[in-house]
């Protein structure tokens, strides 16, 4: 993404995490603006994530799978531009859509996906992220737990919603 950003004329916003995370892609990965990538198939829940949160979301999907909940994971590397049709099609294939992001749930990935899903094929959607509050400064592990972004907390939130469904 850094190479793409430096070669792109005009303003670009590139968000970087403060801590290293596991690689989701191999060294041959090439960033393509707009493209979304299905990393895991699922038939009951679609977890949509971006950035470093995607690695944690993949672990959450595995935890849900161990409990018999089939969870897919869709990685959205760029918020704008984005492939609306691909997100809409992926969301239409499951009864529950969940966005997971290290960002406020307002004005980021969750808001974008909510707009796409409601415009194409409305269905239940849960947005996991930082609520509309002032953020704290603390170690990353503490912040992830506080805002429900650890794999265990994401899986627990999805499980509670799924069990009520």
Word description of this protein:
It is globular, with a radius of gyration of 15 Å. The chain is 38% helix and 18% strand. α2 crosses α6 and α3 crosses α4. By secondary structure, it is an alpha/beta fold. It contains six helices and five strands. The model has no long low-confidence stretch (mean pLDDT 94). The longest helix is centred in the middle third of the chain and has 14 residues.
Mind sketching the topology for me?
Layout: H1 2-7, E1 37-40, E2 45-49, H2 53-66, E3 71-75, H3 84-92, E4 96-104, H4 109-120, E5 125-130, H5 140-146, H6 151-164
Parallel strand pairs: 2-3, 2-4, 4-5
Antiparallel strand pairs: 1-3
Helix pairs in contact: 2-6, 3-4
Brief characterization of the structure:
This protein has 165 residues and is of the alpha/beta class. It is built from 6 helices and 5 strands, in the order αββαβαβαβαα. It has a 5-stranded mixed β-sheet with strand order 1-3-2-4-5, with helices on both faces.
Number of domains: 1
Share in helix: 25-40%
Provide the CATH architecture: 3-Layer(aba) Sandwich
- Our estimate of the beta-strand percent is 15-25%
Discrete helix count = 6
Q: Taking Cα atoms only, what radius of gyration do you get, to the nearest Å? A: 15 Å
CATH topology value: Rossmann fold
For this entry, what is the oligomeric state of its chains?
single chain
> Structural class per helix/strand content?
alpha/beta
Output the helix-strand order: HEEHEHEHEHH
> Overall mean pLDDT score?
94
How many angstroms does the end-to-end distance come to? 38 Å
What's the level 1 CATH class?
Answer: Alpha Beta
The total beta strand count reads 5
